[in-house]
Write a sequence for this structure.
């Protein structure tokens, strides 16, 4: 294969992935009326499992309940963002919910439903260490929103050593 052929093939594949991801984002927003779409819920659940690994309960039933509560807190945290930020986040969640977006931005080939905590953690770490500013920004946004929503519950403050506000 010649170098020009390889470059054309690469550019063509990149264009197809970009169009597919953008199309998916336009057809199914990640947020609708302040609620996560089903695909975004699955993605946020997987990312929360990876980001909060070690903070979540070990028992499967308790872990599932904690992640379910986390989704509600995540939606509440996002609802308090400015409208323009919510729109951008909605587009990002829709893009990452699609296979093309998950693959191109996170290099995660496993669907969100079946991705292990280790696979999602590795994909997040790749984004954190990426030379692309966009990937780093996405990583920080996902991590910060996940941890902010987790620690918005006073029951989790002790996990970070915060005793709570002082009584006056």
């Amino acid at each position: 294969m010649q170098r020009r052929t390889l470059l054309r093939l690469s550019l063509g594949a990149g264009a197809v992935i970009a169009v597919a991801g953008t199309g998916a984002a336009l057809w199914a927003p990640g947020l609708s009326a302040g609620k996560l779409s089903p695909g975004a819920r699955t993605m946020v659940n997987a990312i929360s499992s990876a980001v909060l690994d070690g903070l979540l309960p070990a028992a499967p039933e308790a872990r599932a309940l904690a992640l379910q509560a986390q989704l509600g807190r995540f939606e509440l945290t996002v609802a308090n963002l400015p409208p323009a930020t919510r729109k951008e986040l909605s587009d990002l969640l829709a893009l990452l919910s699609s296979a093309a977006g998950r693959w191109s931005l996170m290099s995660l080939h496993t669907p969100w439903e079946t991705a292990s905590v280790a696979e999602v953690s590795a994909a997040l770490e790749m984004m954190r260490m990426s030379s692309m500013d966009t990937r780093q920004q996405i990583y920080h946004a996902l991590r910060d929103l996940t941890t902010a929503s987790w620690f918005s519950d006073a029951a989790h403050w002790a996990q970070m050593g915060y005793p709570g506000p002082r009584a006056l």
Remarks:
- The first strand starts at residue 31 and ends at 32.
- Helices lie at 3-27, 38-51, 60-79, 83-97, 99-106, 117-128, 133-150.
- The chain has one domain: 31-153.
- Residues 31-153 form one domain.
